[in-house]
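pinging the channel bc i need a second pair of eyes. not urgent but kinda urgent?? the chain im working w is below, pasted from the shared doc
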Amino acid sequence: MPGYSTRNERVSIGGHIYRLRVLTDKQQFSDPDGHADRLGISSAQWSLFGQVWPSGRLLAQAMHRFDISQKRVLELGCGIGLASLVLQHRGADVVASDVHPLAEAFLAYNAALNELPALHYRQLRWNVPLPTLGHFDLIIASDVLYEIDHAELLAGVVKQHAYPKAEVLVTDPGRGHSNRFSRLLEMQGFTLEEKRCPMDDSDSPPFRGRLLHYTRTGETH
């Protein structure tokens, strides 16, 4: 036994059913060798990677529609990796990344569960440079601005890994740090188009969810 329990979940994105192995609930925890703790993942945070969150569904839906032609895509904080699986299903050039020690195994299992080729995965700590990761045309993430320092950390990742002409797309459930992130990306030459979105079926206007789409043309003036 791995020390935690799982269940299977079915999620419909763009009319296609994705089968996912997820953690049974948010009470799961298993870190026998202290690996997660050394990465800064507390017992309270440990299970968060293994759930399908509303922002993750929203990002996956966006990736079902997004123009991915000739674009190299990086997902930050992929967790279960639903958005990356949608991109893989569409034939995109995608790299999924997370810091959680189990994210890679769950992603590989879920790719196989959906009869998809194995995804490219890199363990990425936002505060530790990883030059071999390379550069991307599109960087995506869902609900990653939940702590006060995440705006600076994520802006730093974008600065390191976005091409001069690039896009960044983040889904956010209305947390308080997205404005700081937007200002930091504006300093890097990105412009923002923001769309309010329902986070679930019970959400009513004005919707708390945000789809933040940043674009940088790469042109110099």
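so The longest strand covers residues 162-172. and The chain has a mean pLDDT of 93. — does that match what u expected or am i reading it wrong
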